[in-house]
Amino acid sequence: MRFHEYEDWLEREHAAIETELEPGCVQVGPFLTPTEYPDSPPWKMEWAVIFPDGNFFRVTENWFARTTSLIRRGERKHFSFHYGPANPLRDAEGLPVRSQNYPAIFRADCDRHSPHLHFAGEDHVGQGRVAGLRIDQLEPFDFARAILKYRATGDGFDTILKFKVTT
Amino acid sequence: MSIQRRNAPTLDGVLRAIAAFERHYDVETSVFTLNDRRSAHVDEDDATEWLYLIEQANVLAESAVGNMYATASEGVLLHNVPDPSELLAA
Description:
A: 167 residues; two-stranded antiparallel ribbon; 9 strands; 35% strand; B: mainly alpha; 3 helices
């Protein structure tokens, strides 16, 4: 995917979900950060929604260059989708400052630990123990909608996203 | 609310951010590898941001001085890492 395609997709998906947000939410972003050329990787996306009860979600994606021959196309290499209590301390842009004092209630990551979940109080639940969900295929707006549904219904994330964790 | 485009970073800014991580964790980028026990204590989010900064530094340095800051193949950042001050002086 190229940067302008990603930007168009982000604009479209964000506009669609905005109408579904709870009243009183505070949005921070979405921020889209190119690196050098407007239409080349790497780029970064960051978006947070802070709910009136003090919880929030933040979705971050880092897109890297694919290969030398496809230098203008990016691939999503790392992402972090986080839901939990928000640190009242905010950075200059208004994003809650990361702190281990505010651990996640639910989180999906694709990072140096490879795809994994933070679920039901357990950290780093790897893909090998998760059936029914390809963690590395999870999209930020799917995660955001899962959070909205969780808040509206109280259903578990495993029910909402249709996955099972094995021991 | 519409998408906000942040300003693109400068090479100088990216290198300073990398240096800040190195100071904070007392781990050099040249030994910050995917499964290296020396980087095991690096916070998950910081590690992700660190790797992204390396990718940015690669692109910016390649463009700016025709050199690679590091080889960012899935976290293995070991080879031919020049001194950032040399890059900036070039």
